[in-house]
Amino acid sequence: MIDPAGVRALAALADHGTVAAAATALGFTPSAVSQQIKRLEANIGEPLTEQVGRVLRLTPAGHTLVREGSELITRWADLEARLPRADQPPSGTITLGAFATALRGLCIPAVTALRDRAPELAVRLSEIEVGPGIDAVRSGRLDACVVHGWHGLAAPIPADLLTEDIGVDHTDIALRDDHELADRDHLTPTDLIDLTWTIQPPGTICHRWFQHMFAALGRVPAHYWEVGEYENQLELVRRLNVVALIPRLGRPACSGIRFVPVKDPEPLRDIAVIWRRGLQGTQQHQFLTRALRDAGPW
Fold first, then answer.
1. The model's pTM
2. Beta strands in 155-280 (DSSP E)
3. How far is CA 292 from CA 66, 146, 218, in A?
4. Which tens digits make up the pLDDT trace of 108-163?
5. At what angle do helices 60-82 and 4-16 cross, to 10 degrees?
6. How far apart are CA 280 and CA 288, in angstroms?
7. How far is Cα 274 from Cα 140, in angstroms, rounded to an integer?
8. What is the distance in angstroms between the CA of the first residue and the CA of the last residue of the chain?
9. CA separation for the pair 27, 6 (Å, rounded)
10. Are residues 64 and 108 in the same domain?
11. Structural domain of 223
């Protein structure tokens, strides 16, 4: 008999690389994870892992079981989630991913509010970027993920996932309060083209929007620092008098910095949550989506 707990333990080992890391992800001890995998091997009668040097790897049979068994477990969990609960608040566990500013400004407030609305529903949060988050929902490693796409540069969402709009996030230019442009009501790319910037690194959707913002001028600012964390960007603004494009969602408290809106084009982010379609219409889906919408600054 195939034990679902053993399949989950084996899948966690495949995802995280070590028994210790798998145990942390599952909330068990390493000993418990090892025992679940050994019990699964005994029930199947075939080795599912092998020692390669100091690393424990899955055998071909182990990979097959994770690939096929994880899909069955996900479908079983979806079936359980869809059973009617006589109008009782939802229970169980939802795994929710989100990029950093959405985690801070949206997901944590939503989960806090759900403690009162649905105390039996546990939401396990993971910080993850948009691309890996989409892959994690498709593979079943996450139930849902908050994603964003800039107006004109939407993130491609696979058709087999459910997408629901949450709100629109505005973005402003951050300047030190003694900057010569800090007293403006708004700014345009022409005002900003020759300034020194701190921006998101290449390969990110935010970097692509930075380039898109200056497309009409035929060039982008020549001087910039590539920094991924918005807190670090704000520190550069404060200390070196550079400028940055900072979303309002999850924006940390800032002293000595002024935020000025941008026009032509206005930098807006569409915030959405993507779900595995098997959870569509469940109480977990309905309660969490509503909580995310209510938590936003829209």
1. 0.69
2. 161-176, 197-199, 224-226, 243-247, 257-261, 268-276
3. 32, 9, 38
4. 999 999 998 899 999 999 999 998 999 999 888 899 999 999 987 877 888 889 99
5. 120
6. 12
7. 12
8. 50
9. 14
10. no
11. 168-268
